[in-house]
Amino acid sequence: MDDIEALKRLKARYCRTLDTKDWDGMRPIFADDAVVDTTGSGGGVITGADAFMTFLREHLADHVTVHHCHMPEITLTSPSTATGIWAMEDRIRWAGGGELIGFGHYHETYEKTGGTWRIKTTTLTRLRLDMTEPAP
Amino acid sequence: MDDIEALKRLKARYCRTLDTKDWDGMRPIFADDAVVDTTGSGGGVITGADAFMTFLREHLADHVTVHHCHMPEITLTSPSTATGIWAMEDRIRWAGGGELIGFGHYHETYEKTGGTWRIKTTTLTRLRLDMTEPAP
Amino acid sequence: MDDIEALKRLKARYCRTLDTKDWDGMRPIFADDAVVDTTGSGGGVITGADAFMTFLREHLADHVTVHHCHMPEITLTSPSTATGIWAMEDRIRWAGGGELIGFGHYHETYEKTGGTWRIKTTTLTRLRLDMTEPAP
Fold it and tell me: Rounded to whole angstroms, how far apart are CA atoms B48 and B112?
């Protein structure tokens, strides 16, 4: 499999493990020092893969989520680094009843270590973010 | 075209022929002895491509459908076999007025015979399945 | 990057520049004499990339749009020509408040000149097109 296909699968695995709540399957997707910027969605910047996993378990584990990513634009910037832009749509159905439907783009960087690609940084920008009551 | 790209196109063709009701175009996508497991959507297990075509003609031909598949994770397991996972979203607008909106994953196996890839088995698991009245 | 991947990125760039209103980034995506057929959505046939850019700036610049394309079926028909079919979903939130949600397929041709792929023709057929009031 070539690097571009491997990077597409990496993001596919992120969405699948997120929506199936397979946290152990998700952890290796991220570099240990990964930085996740959720400010576009009203959140903060989370530094470190373990911290992000804690964040996800606390905020999404109890809710039904759907994350779909589309039309990747992946650029290999060296044999071990790459960038990617993905269009995305996400839906969260909070256990309490309200829903979030959002659209935007992931802007990401990747690094390859020990033959394995991982997400190094990811920033989610938003085109739209709709909420229905009750909020979580 | 490489095998992974060919398998992506195979699933694309499935969704397109389904939503455009091109049943003749769809039949060759499936191995003769294909097994389609729809238990995750409240249906049954359908054995045989011809039986599945009959099922589709009976259940979906008169309704407006949209099937979108995303972020394939395809693995070649031998020169003539492969597996795939696809995230998916489907919408059915029943002729009677109600709608179904669903999200989930297709878990599939493929086989290559005579130089052509076909779907051998497909199982649809669900994250969400919403219905609006009236039911079909 | 191979031609099929380059063509996938071309369409990705179209959707991204459209939804982020990056009109200067979009113009090189189209051949000068590109033909855009929007009759399936109730519009007309627009001839010429510059005319299409004018159309987009007039009709979509002030509204929040989301265009997602899926499951490309790309065929190289010569070293410098190709065809493509993409499933699509688009959402427009008009500044006045109404919304459009549509589903369909882009049927496209591409040409490569000076080493760069561009969209030569694009026709959007529709499976569904829903509008909520107020209309734009």
Answer: 17
**Does C128 contact B at CB distance below 8 Å?**
yes
Give residue-wise pLDDT tens across range C6-37. 999 999 999 999 999 999 999 999 999 999 99
Q: Give pLDDT tens digits for B34-61.
A: 999 999 999 999 999 999 999 999 999 9
What is the count of residue pairs from B and C with beta carbons less than 8 Å apart? 40
Q: How many CB atoms lie within 10 A of CB C67?
A: 23
Residue that the structure tokens 């995230």 belong to: B87
- Per the CB < 8 Å rule, is A69 touching B73? no
Q: What percent of chain C has pLDDT over 70?
A: 100
User: pTM (2 decimals)?
Assistant: 0.97
The enclosing domain of A47 has a CATH number of 3.10.450.50
Q: What distance in Å separates residue B81's CA from the closest CA in chain A?
A: 16
Q: Do A71 and C66 touch (CB under 8 A)?
A: no
pLDDT band at C104 (very low <50, low <70, confident <90, very high): very high
How many distinct structural domains can be found in chain C?
A: 1
Condensed to tens digits (0 to 9), the pLDDT of residues A3-26 reads: 999 999 999 999 999 999 999 999
Nearest residue on chain B to C106, alpha-carbon basis: B16
| Residue C135 resides in a domain | no
Spell out where C12-115 has E strands. Answer: 30-37, 45-47, 64-78, 81-93, 99-113
Residue in C with minimal Cα distance to B13: C73
Range of the domain at C91: 3-127
The SS3 assignment for C6 reads: helix
Taking CB atoms and an 8 Å limit, are A128 and C70 in contact across chains? Answer: no
What's the gap in Å between the CA of C41 and the closest CA on chain A? 22
SS3 for A10? helix
